[in-house]
Write a structure and sequence with these properties.
The chain is 36% helix and 23% strand. With 425 residues, the protein is an alpha+beta fold.
Length: 425
């Protein structure tokens, strides 16, 4: 039997698991404070829903899905990103009848086949916030500000927001025509992958990190030069909001989103102190406005904006900065048992403390006093409970102060009350 994990996967446990939980908990804390509410959508989505929403199905992307046939003539995929599922849920559950905007946060796993080929993860983790039904620039400003706050409080260090505007459908059409003309002249110099993708989606070449494609990009047309007056004003107001909140940003005119559902503002949040494994910018978060997405579902336009925290990148950054995981519950008490009869009683003692909401740790498989005291010392628990043969017969328990070494024997039924008083000191 093969014991190796799948390529592009990872086992999360101990400190690393807790670091991921720290990211999600901080995101939930800040998003909830600002009025965002939780949503959880299925990991599986109808392939037709995704392909219609993002216009994804092409020679370059269709092999990137994990596809399964759940019923005849209906293919399902493991979700590759969260935006499509959120919009589907918004429409299916008639959230457009609720007060607008609908402000949602979500967390979870997303899947892409190509991760293992580049040494990247096939299953990625993210925390996201979205405002559906919000047409104004304050939407982008709030999403960006919250992502920055989350990263700051997680200890991510100095960051900068790379931001751009690709305009609406008409602006993007004009921009694509200019891009098409520019890259046709330089087609022979493109990398193999860009040559393959260019005909179906000309703007996809702007995402390429190959040196020769980056060189061509230097003289490429800029999306902001194709903006109509309305889109220019919208983007201007977004930047004014960022200025008024002292958010560090850089106008990155080469930043675009490759899919048609995204419009106007696009952004990435990158570390100013760390680089990615290949020396490229370390992207900790990203987002965009996606006003046109609802039209793919046959509905009217629901102006929307969302942003994501790349939990995998953030956890890697936290590890590189030696940021310790914050355990939600740290044991205040360690229970030591020294006989067979004591083992029989210790489960009842643990349950007493659970009901009192006092976190207690133990090593019930150990028998030696010194080994159990050593574990308690490593956990840095201030108090130890000792239940031996004598105490078991007398229905009592010893409470020891680990700092002073002093101890007292108390009836088992009163031990929770005694410990509570000691913890308050």
């Amino acid at each position: 039997m093969n014991t190796e994990k799948p390529k592009g996967g990872q086992d999360l446990f101990a400190d690393k698991y807790v670091l991921y939980q720290n990211v999600f908990e901080k995101g939930e804390e800040i998003a909830s404070y600002y009025g965002f509410r939780p949503i959880q959508t299925p990991h599986l989505e109808d392939l037709r829903t995704v392909s219609g929403g993002l216009n994804l199905i092409s020679r370059s992307t269709e092999g990137n899905f994990f596809v399964t046939e759940s019923e005849p003539s209906r293919e399902m995929i493991l979700r590759t990103e969260g935006t499509i599922g959120l919009m589907r849920a918004y429409i299916e559950n008639e959230m457009y009848a609720m007060p607008q905007p609908v402000m949602l946060w979500h967390k979870g796993s997303f899947f892409k086949k190509d991760g293992s080929a580049e040494g990247k993860l096939r299953e990625t983790q993210e925390f996201g916030i979205d405002m559906i039904g919000e047409p104004k620039p304050i939407g982008e400003a709030l999403v960006i500000q919250l992502l920055i706050l989350i990263l700051k409080e997680l200890g991510a260090g100095q960051t900068v927001v790379n931001i751009n505007s690709t305009g609406d459908k008409e602006c993007k059409g004009e921009f694509k025509r200019k891009i098409l003309s520019h890259y046709k002249k330089n087609f022979s110099s493109l990398c193999k992958e860009c040559k393959k993708n260019f005909k179906e989606n000309p703007t996809s070449v702007l995402d390429c990190r190959e040196s020769k494609c980056l060189e061509i990009k230097k003289n490429a047309p800029q999306a902001v030069d194709s903006l109509c007056p309305g889109c220019k004003q919208h983007f201007k107001e977004v930047l004014e909001f960022l200025d008024s909140n002292d958010i560090n940003y850089f106008l990155n005119t080469g930043l675009v989103k490759k899919f048609d559902c995204y419009s106007r503002t696009v952004f990435e949040i990158v570390s100013e102190e760390e680089k990615g494994k290949d020396g490229s910018p370390l992207v900790l978060g990203s987002g965009a406005r996606y006003d046109a997405l609802s039209k793919a579902f046959g509905k009217k336009e629901f102006p929307s904006v969302g942003g994501r925290i790349n939990a995998d990148a953030v956890v890697a950054l936290m590890e590189s900065r030696n940021i310790s995981p914050k355990y939600k519950r740290v044991p205040k008490i360690f229970l030591i048992q020294l006989s067979h009869s004591a083992k029989q009683k210790c489960m009842g003692v643990i349950e007493m403390f659970r009901k009192a909401n006092i976190y207690i740790s133990q090593s019930i498989n150990k028998d030696n006093l010194n080994s159990q005291l050593g574990i308690a010392a490593r956990l840095n628990t201030p108090y130890v409970l000792i239940l031996g043969q004598k105490e078991s017969l007398e229905n009592s328990i010893i409470v020891r102060d680990m700092a002073t070494g002093s101890q007292e024997s108390v009836p088992i039924e009163k031990v929770v009350e005694v410990v509570k008083k000691k913890l308050k000191k």
